[in-house]
Amino acid sequence: MHQPREVPLSDRERIKRHLDYDFTEPIRDPLWSHIYLSPGLKRVVATSQFQKLGGIRQLGPTYMVYPGATHTRLNHSLGVFSLAQKMIQTLISYDAADDLTDCGVRSFLCAALLHDLGHFPFAHSLKELPLASHESLTARTILETSLASIIEHETGADPSMTAQIIYTETDDVTSKEVEIYRKILSGVLDPDKLDYLTRDAYFCGVPYGVQDVDFIFSKLRFRREAGLVVDEQGLHAVENVLFSKYLMYRTIYWHKTVRIATAMIKKALHSEISSGAVHAEELYGLDDSTFFCRFGHSRYRSAELISRVGARKLYKLAFELPFEETLVSHSRLSDLLYRAQVEKSMADQGGLGYNGVIIDIPEPITFEVDLLIESGGQLVPFVEAGTVFSKEVVSGFARALRKIRIFTVGGDADTPELSDAAERWLN
Amino acid sequence: MHQPREVPLSDRERIKRHLDYDFTEPIRDPLWSHIYLSPGLKRVVATSQFQKLGGIRQLGPTYMVYPGATHTRLNHSLGVFSLAQKMIQTLISYDAADDLTDCGVRSFLCAALLHDLGHFPFAHSLKELPLASHESLTARTILETSLASIIEHETGADPSMTAQIIYTETDDVTSKEVEIYRKILSGVLDPDKLDYLTRDAYFCGVPYGVQDVDFIFSKLRFRREAGLVVDEQGLHAVENVLFSKYLMYRTIYWHKTVRIATAMIKKALHSEISSGAVHAEELYGLDDSTFFCRFGHSRYRSAELISRVGARKLYKLAFELPFEETLVSHSRLSDLLYRAQVEKSMADQGGLGYNGVIIDIPEPITFEVDLLIESGGQLVPFVEAGTVFSKEVVSGFARALRKIRIFTVGGDADTPELSDAAERWLN
Amino acid sequence: MHQPREVPLSDRERIKRHLDYDFTEPIRDPLWSHIYLSPGLKRVVATSQFQKLGGIRQLGPTYMVYPGATHTRLNHSLGVFSLAQKMIQTLISYDAADDLTDCGVRSFLCAALLHDLGHFPFAHSLKELPLASHESLTARTILETSLASIIEHETGADPSMTAQIIYTETDDVTSKEVEIYRKILSGVLDPDKLDYLTRDAYFCGVPYGVQDVDFIFSKLRFRREAGLVVDEQGLHAVENVLFSKYLMYRTIYWHKTVRIATAMIKKALHSEISSGAVHAEELYGLDDSTFFCRFGHSRYRSAELISRVGARKLYKLAFELPFEETLVSHSRLSDLLYRAQVEKSMADQGGLGYNGVIIDIPEPITFEVDLLIESGGQLVPFVEAGTVFSKEVVSGFARALRKIRIFTVGGDADTPELSDAAERWLN
Amino acid sequence: MHQPREVPLSDRERIKRHLDYDFTEPIRDPLWSHIYLSPGLKRVVATSQFQKLGGIRQLGPTYMVYPGATHTRLNHSLGVFSLAQKMIQTLISYDAADDLTDCGVRSFLCAALLHDLGHFPFAHSLKELPLASHESLTARTILETSLASIIEHETGADPSMTAQIIYTETDDVTSKEVEIYRKILSGVLDPDKLDYLTRDAYFCGVPYGVQDVDFIFSKLRFRREAGLVVDEQGLHAVENVLFSKYLMYRTIYWHKTVRIATAMIKKALHSEISSGAVHAEELYGLDDSTFFCRFGHSRYRSAELISRVGARKLYKLAFELPFEETLVSHSRLSDLLYRAQVEKSMADQGGLGYNGVIIDIPEPITFEVDLLIESGGQLVPFVEAGTVFSKEVVSGFARALRKIRIFTVGGDADTPELSDAAERWLN
Questions:
Q1: At what angle do helices D102-114 and D73-91 cross, to 10 degrees?
Q2: Residue D51 is nearest to which of C27, C66, C312, comparing CB atoms?
Q3: Which of A210, A236, A249 is nearest to A382 (CA)?
């Protein structure tokens, strides 16, 4: 469009030109102001596969506690795309970025936009069930539906590269370039985390998650041997991400009431899947409303648990104690079948009926600190770079968050016999 | 609870005590920080009647354009309650507030919380169809469901007074006190408008709607003869509300794409209700997902219009021109039956099939300016109190917003014959 | 730095490269997040000429009413630079921008950063006194101090072009390119106004001034024949700028107390300059603290007025009435010498001493609407492009803001005789 | 004003009435929206003693790095008052608050407003010099100037109680009530810290300091035996305060450039005071501009250091290393006289002239954790209440922040000989 050129463009020039001129379609976002899509990505956004994300609330039942938390995976996906785009813009100014190709960058931007495509309601909390990961479902959708062709023809990306960037457990042999994008998309300072911490804080109305995004981008460096690293002046911003994540888990993601709703769903689905009444495939592709429609149905033995959640008639907290990994009585409960037996036994002893007791143990989480800090030309692991957060402090974050909770219909009003039973099982 | 008292409390003292001590249950809101409910109102909030509002997006299909607009009527209702509570706190410091009773204030606060209870999807755009108003449905829900007893026994309010405050077209004889509350709940500076303008701006991510709420409250005065008035120092805040409303209609509420989705639904329902295939009662009580489930069903002739909206496969704009009330060819189109005939005729002429053409004319709106300004001890109508917005300017706001738009599947690509037809019908 | 090139770069390419790679020095700004300077501009910022702006509060005595208004012309200048930079980034993507040169763009960016360099305390309110304009003083500083050489050698700009862009009343013959930059820097949607409205609102803590900056930039178009124009989709954003400006004048810039402080300074300086006790040159180059030091000194007859302002011992309002341009008794007061006589006469009649009465009439302001809107390929003047703000409405904004106020030490307590005098003079 | 009463009011009722009805004078604040003063406190605010705070920037030379940091101790003082007022409103709802008196509460609110009255430029960094503390100077101003009578007659407070609340090192015997207020005004969650963290973040434009103020207030409890305690649900908000304080020190309060400016001033004043050229009393009562006027004067040997800071011609960093308390070579440097000798010796060795080398060691700081958490009816020290921040982690915050820095005019360009000298002295 701007003056003809005879010399073939280098990849870097083509990438730069793509980033500079092709993102002409604005979408308004309350977090990042205007997000600009290319016309091709706009068509991707218009597909039913992507639009489905608008039916899945980002924080599931959290809106029952924080009513503002109505934002969806669609909002978040656009946000991740926007931050990924800014990251690439930063990266491309480094010589080390010479390994990137035009098609690779396009595939990466698609991956950022589509990384949550395989999500279904409560997917994050159902990791212990025999279900496909949302990443593998995302890859499947990208490769096996009409999306593949739209991605290829409208955006100039390579669908299989996009899928590989997202789904890391594939057996496919992948290129070094794919490895680079994987590390950008999923790391200590990835666009996913920067978006969700800031966005969840905005919609819930808490100050805890807000990240210093613009500053972080200015401190990112790209080194051929190491990929994305952070200048030491940005060290505190990494500390802030870690601590924010802890605070967000404490106040929002694992708020007691959110755990109750989640545990009810998890128990119901575990039971139905174990008995063969529900097949994994039935879950994939659902959104929030079809999920409750389908499984709140009386043909399932545990339907009541699900429909109660749909109607916000939640169980109540009877007991709560820290989860201690070193106690066998605690660690054995990580086995969901064993846990179901204990629940049944407690319910019997407490005189509570079918599904009368639920034991909740939040899923294991990690606070990644696997990042290199560049200090005086040297690359140093984050935990050795002068941070106030040693490995022990950071693992303390995860530990402090995990609590065993026992829920019943009546909560702590149900106590006497149940209390005895709990004492016995949890010490 | 704090020291015994023998003397009976005056109503003012009881109201003050209620406001000071009974609102102990916090809910986090991204707009107004913490909203405090009384334990009784917390139970009202937990009812299925109120929770249903969490399934109705405040701005309907607007999230298709502004993806952040996922907030629901539940969020908004809590916000209106919170602002109403602050207004009462201001009011109660005026001597003129001596006419208020403890039960009245409690009924008013319930009314603020529950004013949108009768809402169903697209209710605002379906006012021209033979449907009950959402206010009358709200009153029905308050008086005829289990809510009545919860309101009465848990909050100390009088359900029939609450219903009267909301539903103003009732034939019931109402008290002077009810009149006062009606004016507070629905006026130029009402808590409804102050919440929705500010909230919609927050979730959409635009600066236009934000109101100077705290300042406005400090300039409200309560006069026995006139009810709520505004000190002249607050005049510009009223101007700001008016202009913000105009900007929000222009950029959000009546954004072209929002109008398309709305017009498609309206046409479909008008047609189905006219033919008797759908009865008004079927709409009441629906939320967003049950709405699309039920009416997207192929048993309805116009189901396709509805399921297209559900899937975001919208018609496109073919023409647009200002609506001119004084042109008969325009004003006649306000009659939906006549409009349907014109649409059919145009579709025939343009070679477009059943429901192939939709004519949209935004519903009439008013920008109320019916407010008294207190200036040097005198009460003066707003438009005479030194504002830059004369009646003409304000009616210009409404006029500038109303446009006739013609939508078809293909948009302006469908033009030649359709263009001729449109020319004929709209001049 | 990135691959060698033999072909000479076009100006557009050099500008693009400059904008893309040379702005590496971040400064944190609460409004625009990170502002990036080039190393050369960083040196300009470090000069004493620029740093002096850090001693001049942007809103002068406004902090007496809105204590948050402590921001300085330095903050604002950085903000204007940042917005100007974004505008150029937008512009450069238009073919019409082919008339721009690399040196021109650099000169323009300097102009944006330095446009307020000649400011001294209260400069805006002293326009009626025989003083050099701050624009001419800015040009002088740029051309005649050490800045000239720093600009030339460190930034690649042409100091005389920078000066011409800012100081439009020069007799110098200027290029078409200078004309383009002048229109960008000073128009309906200029970076100056977009910054100050938003910034002043942020620091004062009011919602009124906030502009939709990112959106506005996306609707700017650059047409060779017409310069900057706005797409019709951006029309409402222009309306918002106009209305915001009105609201900011009403609530902040011309707040009664701000006017009092301003009027006291103005009267004192007018009197001292008229009598020859103070020479214009003494004012230039002062900052807030040196201003009060120098003129609060008892050697001046009107020093008390100035030192009272410094100590926030302000006069009080005795009367206020709308300024009516068509009344001779009002319009004559625009002559400061005549006004001083009337003040003296009133003071005598009211039994108030020297400088006992001050008449304030806010300086004439205009709400520029001189902008072209692009609609369907046509360029239409803003007021004919479907706006709700006709010329009459907009001139009503200015009219509504101008009030004659009479201030005395005691305010309305001083009334009886003064009241008579005022009646006589102002009718 | 509202109906006559014969029965004498209890103190609690008088306090409540005071809080409910007497705070009628709004001031706009960008952080806390409207702050309401009583007419009496408005008069206190108008005194020259309080207004002087408007001339002292809250963060001293920080605006050189974060240009938005122009806010003053006046802004902060109003904010602290506002938060203190909200705290009292919460407190008063507890039975344990029966020990509070009406006069006591009024004295406390004065104390909150006036707590920084004795501040002078750089006071926080000059604690190692033989100067009166700003608290004692505040007490002096309250008791020995015209303020005493204004406080007493206009606000109903007792000036000596106000002074005692602020100045805790007095020998005066104080009441239990004074002890309560002291703990509120200065503790882990005091209104001072909640204001400055949030305010400094707002003006600088960083997200790090923002506190969840409203939530914190909802979790404060008042227990007769223990004073202010925090419900365990508020534990994470305390963690957030601690971590925010660390981040703010790291990025803002002890930013390298801020330390340079501070160290230059400190060295200059230490030298002048040691030599007897400057007397402590000369510093008290200065504001930013009078400070630089007075001490930038050539009659002082170290004037150049001060005038350089005033003109932003700062020294540059030559070396930086962590301060290790256990190294004698480091700890000895805490003695300013010894430090001056080392500086001189280094300067001689490095061939740099008088005042050519400055060694900076940030003042010792503590991160107080001395707070009780209420958990299941028990009061538990914060560090034992399940926090992720052990005493070690928190003392690590302080440790990580303290660095020895060596500054010279040329910075690291001055290295060879200086480097040797530094090696010798700092190992």
A1: 150
A2: C312
A3: A236
Put simply, the answer to whether C70 touches D67 (Cβ < 8 Å) is no
C256 to chain B, closest Cα gap in Å: 11
Q: Which of residues 383-402 of A touch D (CB under 8 A)?
A: 386-388, 393, 396-397, 400
CA distances from A356 to A216, A345, A346, A411, B169 (A): 48, 10, 9, 11, 49
Distance, CA of C355 to CA of C264 (rounded, Å): 9
Residue B227 CA to residue A113 CA, distance in Å, equals 53
**Coil, strand or helix at A142:** helix
- Alpha helices (runs of H) in A253-365, residue ranges in sequence order: 256-274, 288-295, 303-310, 328-331, 336-349
- The reported pLDDT for the residue numbered B174 is 78
**CA A324 – CA A403 distance, rounded (Å):** 8
Question: φ, ψ for residue B403 (rounded to 5)?
Answer: -130, 145
Spell out the alpha helix ranges (H) of A300-390. 303-310, 328-331, 336-349
Q: How many CB atoms lie within 10 A of CB C177?
A: 19
Chains that touch B (3 or more CB pairs under 8 A): A, C, D
Closest-CA residue of C relative to D72 is: C70
How high is the ipTM of this complex?
0.94
Find chain C residues with C-beta within 8 A of A215's C-beta.
Answer: 26, 28, 34
Amino acid of residue A406? I
If you count them, how many residues does chain C have?
427
CA distance B234 to B248: 21
First vs last C-alpha separation in chain D: 73
Q: CA-to-CA distance for A59 and C389, rounded, in angstroms?
A: 44
Enumerate residues 215 to 274 of chain A having a beta carbon within 8 A of any beta carbon in chain C.
Answer: 215, 218
Please choose, from the candidates D147, D144, D140, D87, the residue with its C-alpha nearest in 3D space to the C-alpha of residue D112: D87
**Residue A405 dihedral angles phi and psi, to the nearest 5°:** -130, 145
Residue among D364, D122, D400, D127 nearest D261 (CA): D122
In chain C, residues with a C-beta closer than 8 Å to the C-beta of A16 are 20
Strand order, beta sheet including A220-223: A220-223, A227-231, A372-375, A378-381
CB contact under 8 A, B70 and A71: yes
pLDDT, one tens digit per residue, over B273-325 is: 999 999 999 999 999 999 998 998 778 999 999 999 999 999 999 989 999 98
Minimal Cα–Cα distance from D53 to chain B, Å? 26
Q: Which chains touch C (3 or more CB pairs under 8 A)?
A: A, B, D
Helix axes B176-185, B102-114, angle to 10 degrees: 30
Query: How far is Cα of residue D50 from the mean position of the Cα atoms in its chain?
Result: 16
Residues of B in contact with D95 (CB under 8 A): 2
C202 interfaces chain B, CB cutoff of 8 Å: no
For A101-146, write each residue's pLDDT tens digit.
999 999 999 999 999 999 999 998 899 999 999 999 999 999 999 9
Q: At what angle do helices D288-295 and D303-310 cross, to 10 degrees?
A: 140
